[in-house]
């Protein structure tokens, strides 16, 4: 029987990249002020680095995007990150959708962390997500395409599983900020074609301006 009960639609090890990122458990306060820490899904990696202003004092802790395939594990890993940073008296902010797992709003509330009002990463990126998702359209960003193999492995899916689960969509709308934003790598033609071959769902490509994403960041980072 094919596995169709888990759909990782939008709604992660820790990674360090550049002087604004850190690994779980790495305290790097160099001044007396409270450290501002953003616990973020790695699906935002390139976009977040491009959107933060130069000299931003926020530290980023990345959680793997594939955790979305297991809400219980996502909750546990996020709780560990929140608890450790709270114990170090960091000012914690969270860059996940408020629908990424059932208790994420409660987690944020209990530690006083700021969480976006959007349900998932697509709504965080795009103000008109609901409108674009009409007519059996699935929206993706390059991060989803690039992390899809790790998500398939986590779900235990093969090609037949992915085609069964995504077969209800008439098309995939790929919103690529790399087409219009310096510092972000757009998907290559090879990456797009490989994903089409995997899913057998037609792909439409559209550039994504990061203005809405920057507004969301301003709201949660203050």
Give a quick set of tags describing it:
4-stranded parallel β-sheet; 7 strands; 222 residues; single chain; 3-stranded parallel β-sheet; 9 helices; disordered N terminus; alpha/beta
Characterise the protein shown here.
- The protein has 222 residues and is α/β, with parallel strands linked by helices.
- The protein is 38% helix and 15% strand.
- The protein has a 4-stranded parallel beta sheet with strand order 1-3-2-4, sandwiched between helices. A 3-stranded parallel beta sheet has the order 5-6-7.
- β2, α1 and β3 form a beta-alpha-beta unit.
- The termini are far apart.
- The N terminus is likely disordered.
Write the layout of secondary structure elements.
Blueprint: E1 21-22, E2 36-41, H1 45-51, E3 59-63, H2 71-87, E4 91-95, H3 104-111, H4 121-125, H5 129-132, E5 137-140, H6 142-155, H7 159-166, E6 171-176, H8 189-199, E7 203-207, H9 211-221
Parallel strand pairs: 1-3, 2-3, 2-4, 5-6, 6-7
């Amino acid at each position: 029987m094919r596995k169709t009960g888990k759909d990782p639609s939008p709604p992660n090890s820790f990674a360090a990249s550049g002087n604004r990122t850190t690994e779980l458990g790495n305290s790097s306060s160099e001044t007396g002020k409270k450290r501002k820490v953003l616990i973020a899904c790695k699906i935002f990696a390139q976009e977040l680095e491009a959107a933060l202003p130069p000299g931003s004092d926020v530290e980023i802790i990345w959680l793997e995007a594939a955790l979305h395939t297991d809400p219980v594990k996502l909750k546990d890993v996020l709780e560990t990150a929140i608890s450790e940073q709270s114990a170090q008296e960091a000012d914690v902010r969270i860059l996940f959708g408020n629908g990424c797992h059932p208790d994420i709003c409660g987690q944020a509330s209990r530690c006083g962390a700021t969480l976006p009002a959007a349900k998932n990463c697509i709504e965080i990126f795009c103000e008109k997500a609901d409108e674009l998702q009409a007519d059996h359209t699935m929206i993706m960003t390059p991060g989803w395409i690039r992390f899809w193999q790790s998500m398939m492995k986590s779900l235990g899916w093969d090609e037949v599983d992915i085609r069964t689960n995504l077969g209800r969509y008439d098309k995939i709308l790929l919103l690529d900020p790399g087409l219009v934003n310096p510092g972000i790598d757009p998907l290559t033609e090879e990456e797009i074609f490989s994903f089409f071959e995997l899913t057998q769902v037609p792909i439409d490509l559209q550039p994504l301006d990061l203005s809405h994403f920057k507004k969301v960041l301003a709201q949660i980072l203050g």
